[in-house]
């Protein structure tokens, strides 16, 4: 809805005032007879209802320009006064008055069906609002064409403007009954829509819905009883009481609607309390959330903090959370200097009040920022704990592998040597020299194999060439022993800190092993260059790709690189080879 | 004798050593499944069973062979020492344990002639 200019407000207000005066004049001097005892109360109530809607509608429109409810209330006020055209005893006024006689009811249906936003939001609402409008002016036009008329200036004003018990027997026609049935069905659907909205609303939304919905339900209920009075066998005198009470409720209902619209705004004073409360002590995670939830009247409110480094949201304890506008939840992002710091996940009704949420967010700004830093630290702590656990596990795994390699390799071979020697010993007297020689050869071969395996194992445990000669020769030796042909580019001929050289060496060693074991690669290229103050190592193979960076081998490498403050990235598109890049800072 | 071990050079040397020690070797098996089948078909008197087989654990294989009617005597062997297996050897249904490096006709005879139910060990 457009924001209402002060001038527009004045013009509409003046028009409303005039319309009320005009309606009063029409009733008093229009040419019909109004029973003397009913004139004053009718006049007062009718004008009060119309003015109430116009003035309160204007206030609502001004204070909540985002909602169409204010404008609808103003329209309802004018439609209310427009009925009085029928009280002027001239033909054109009668026609206009009949045509506009029930437009106010259509607007009332529209207003209640779409409260508090004033906009149709689903199919059921659209049907009810449309049927509501079809039942007013278009249907009355049909009745006019069918010949609804009466002697002008005789008796009380037509159209039930003055509420009084009907004199004489009421004999409704079939058409009358059908129309009444549709009206009753319409109002029942309206009540159903309003009740469903109230029932499914969150606490914050209920606060703004309740006053208007309650008043609306009373009005609709009264109209329903009035319309079905005949069917319900309610005596006409009681029906009159209902009609009067509906009128009284109509006078105060706009105020109830306004109260609902402004209810959360009234709560802005709570922002002050929020700041005092947050300032009362160091915020603990749950306290910040609960204070915000209380201030915004939304116990379901959740807070997620943005960690720019990880590009992810985490909760107060640092656990990553998915933040999406799903399940009908509203999202409000809190920013500081253009950078996101947190997001509030809240009742959708609060989305209609960005100013309130912004005020609360501003009030809690320092606390949220503070809590975000806490969450960041907790998140880093979790990551460090997790990586520490993985590093310990990796070390244990490596020891297990060494034990198994020793057992399956060198140990088996040494056992075989021992047995061969024992056999040779037992056969010394009986076997030929050639047979003994063959046994000794067998033992020698097994010993040589055991030695080679022990050397390989020792190199795997720690590459002594790396310490003695540096990264270049160590990587060249690694490439020479690789089962997949590997080429090492120029490695800067200088030394880096031990830990840096070791980490780069093991990155290449693991990547080579992966290229041979998993990638089915035909060629591997190893590239090492000094990168600023650190080292950048890249191992690229031409294998089948699709390596999982979260797989245990690569994860272990990433932990190892991260332990030195470096970063490991893996590019492994399916069918496009694998590229492992490690950047390690030096000190 | 049935020799069960996944390491072919060991099987070959063990066979020659045991034959030299007066035993008759009726077959060899390289894994647990092979061992179960050979033990049934060849009905050996003694099974020399490696603890670490590629497809299963030697203790489990020993349990299954010993559970049969007319089960052979089972002697466990390993390149590890008996200490590495803690009380598992005693708890098993094997007659005894021999460290592979200690294997020979005499050692085997000593284990076989030991009392059933109490594992005799060498190594």
TrEMBL record, chain A:
Domain named Histidine kinase/HSP90-like ATPase: which ranges?
499-587
Q: Which cellular components does GO assign to this protein?
A: membrane
* UniProt keyword annotation of Transmembrane present: yes
Check the record and name the Pfam families matching this protein.
HATPase_c, HisKA_3
From which domain of life does this come?
Bacteria
InterPro entries referenced in this protein's UniProt entry, alphabetically:
HATPase_C_sf, HATPase_dom, Sensor_HK_TwoCompSys, Sig_transdc_His_kin_sub3_dim/P
Cite a single GO MF annotation.
phosphorelay sensor kinase activity
Quote the catalytic activity from the record: ATP + protein L-histidine = ADP + protein N-phospho-L-histidine
Keyword line: ATP-binding, Kinase, Membrane, Nucleotide-binding, Phosphoprotein, Transferase, Transmembrane, Transmembrane helix, Two-component regulatory system
Membrane-traversing stretches: 12-32, 38-59, 71-90, 96-115, 127-148, 177-196, 208-234, 240-262
Question: What is this enzyme's EC?
Answer: 2.7.13.3
* PANTHER family referenced in this protein's UniProt entry, alphabetically: NITRATE/NITRITE SENSOR PROTEIN NARX-RELATED (PTHR24421), NITRATE_NITRITE SENSOR PROTEIN NARQ (PTHR24421:SF10)
The protein depicted here goes by the name: histidine kinase
Q: What broad taxonomic lineage does this protein's source fall under?
A: Bacteria, Bacillati, Actinomycetota, Actinomycetes, Geodermatophilales
From TrEMBL, chain B:
Q: Which residues carry this modification: 4-aspartylphosphate?
A: 50
Q: Which PROSITE patterns match?
A: RESPONSE_REGULATORY
Coiled-coil annotation reads none
Q: Where is the Response regulatory domain?
A: 1-115
What CDD domains does UniProt report for this protein, alphabetically?
REC_NarL-like (cd17535)
Give the keywords, sorted: Phosphoprotein
Which Gene Ontology biological process is one annotated for this entry? phosphorelay signal transduction system
Enumerate the Pfam families for this protein. Answer: Response_reg
- The highest taxon in the source lineage is Bacteria
Q: Which SUPFAM superfamilies match?
A: CheY-like
| PANTHER family reported in the protein's UniProt record | RESPONSE REGULATORY DOMAIN-CONTAINING PROTEIN, STRESS RESPONSE REGULATOR PROTEIN 1
Q: What is this protein called?
A: Response regulator receiver domain-containing protein
């Amino acid at each position: 809805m457009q924001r209402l200019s002060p001038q527009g407000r004045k013009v509409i207000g003046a028009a409303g005032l005039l319309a009320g005066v005009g309606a009063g004049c029409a009733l008093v001097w229009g040419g019909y007879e109004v029973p003397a005892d009913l004139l004053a109360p009718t006049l007062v109530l009718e004008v009060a209802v119309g003015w109430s809607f116009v003035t309160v509608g204007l206030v609502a429109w001004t204070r909540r320009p985002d909602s169409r409810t204010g404008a609808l209330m103003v329209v309802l006020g004018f439609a209310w006064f427009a009925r009085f055209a029928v009280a002027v005893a001239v033909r054109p006024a009668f026609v206009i008055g009949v045509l506009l006689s029930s437009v106010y009811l259509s607007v009332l249906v529209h207003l209640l069906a779409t409260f508090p936003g004033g906009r149709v939001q689903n199919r059921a609402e659209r049907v009810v609002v449309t049927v509501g409008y079809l039942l007013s002016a278009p249907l009355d036009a049909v009745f006019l064409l069918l010949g609804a008329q009466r002697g002008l200036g005789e008796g009380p004003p037509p159209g039930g403007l003055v509420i009084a018990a009907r004199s004489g027997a009421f004999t409704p026609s079939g058409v009358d009954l059908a129309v009444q049935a549709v009206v009753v069905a319409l109002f029942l659907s309206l009540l159903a829509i309003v009740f469903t909205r109230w029932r499914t609303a969150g606490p914050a939304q209920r606060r703004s819905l309740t006053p208007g919905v309650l008043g609306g339900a009373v009005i609709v209920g009264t109209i329903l009883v009035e319309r079905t009075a005949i069917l319900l066998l309610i005596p006409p005198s009681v029906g009159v009481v209902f009609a009067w009470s509906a009128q009284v409720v109509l006078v105060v209902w706009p105020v109830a609607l306004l109260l609902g619209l402004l209810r959360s705004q009234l709560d802005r004073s709570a922002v002050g309390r929020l700041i005092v409360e947050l300032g009362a002590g160091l915020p603990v995670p749950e306290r910040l959330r609960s204070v915000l939830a209380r201030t915004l009247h939304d116990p379901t409110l959740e807070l997620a903090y943005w960690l720019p480094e990880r590009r992810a949201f985490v909760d107060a304890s640092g656990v990553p959370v998915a933040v999406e506008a799903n399940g009908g939840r509203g999202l409000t992002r809190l920013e500081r200097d253009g950078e996101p710091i947190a997001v509030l996940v809240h009742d959708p009704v609060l989305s209609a009040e960005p100013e309130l949420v912004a005020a609360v967010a501003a009030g809690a700004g320092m606390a949220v920022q503070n809590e975000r830093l806490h969450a960041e630290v907790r998140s880093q702590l979790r990551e460090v704990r997790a990586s520490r656990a993985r590093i310990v596990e990796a070390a244990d795994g490596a020891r297990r592998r060494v034990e198994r390699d020793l057992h399956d390799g060198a140990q088996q071979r040494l056992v075989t040597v021992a047995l061969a020697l024992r056999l040779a010993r037992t056969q010394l007297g009986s076997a030929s020299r050639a047979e003994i020689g063959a046994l000794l050869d067998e033992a020698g071969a097994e010993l040589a194999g055991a030695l080679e395996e022990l050397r390989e194992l020792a190199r795997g445990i720690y590459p002594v060439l790396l310490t003695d000669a540096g990264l270049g020769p160590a990587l060249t030796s690694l490439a020479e022993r690789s089962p997949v042909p590997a080429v090492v580019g120029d490695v800067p001929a200088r030394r880096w800190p031990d830990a840096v050289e070791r980490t780069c060496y093991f990155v290449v060693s693991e990547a080579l092993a992966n290229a041979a074991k998993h990638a089915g690669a035909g060629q591997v290229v190893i590239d090492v260059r000094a990168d600023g103050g650190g080292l950048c190592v890249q191992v690229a193979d031409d294998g089948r790709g699709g390596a999982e960076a979260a797989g245990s081998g690569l994860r272990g490498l990433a932990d190892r690189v991260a332990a030195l403050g470096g970063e490991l990235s893996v590019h492994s598109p399916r069918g496009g080879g694998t590229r492992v890049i490690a950047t390690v800072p030096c000190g | 004798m049935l020799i069960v071990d996944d390491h072919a050079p060991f099987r070959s040397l063990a066979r020659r050593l045991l034959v030299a020690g007066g035993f008759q070797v009726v077959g060899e098996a390289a894994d647990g499944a092979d061992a179960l089948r050979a033990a049934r078909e060849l009905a050996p008197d003694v099974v020399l069973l490696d603890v670490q087989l590629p497809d299963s654990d030697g203790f489990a294989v020993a349990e299954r062979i010993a559970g049969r009617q007319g089960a052979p005597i089972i002697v466990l062997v390993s390149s590890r020492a008996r200490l590495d297996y803690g009380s598992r050897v005693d708890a098993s249904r094997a007659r005894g344990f021999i460290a592979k490096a200690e294997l020979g006709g005499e050692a085997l005879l000593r284990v076989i002639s030991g009392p059933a139910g109490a594992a005799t060990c060498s190594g």
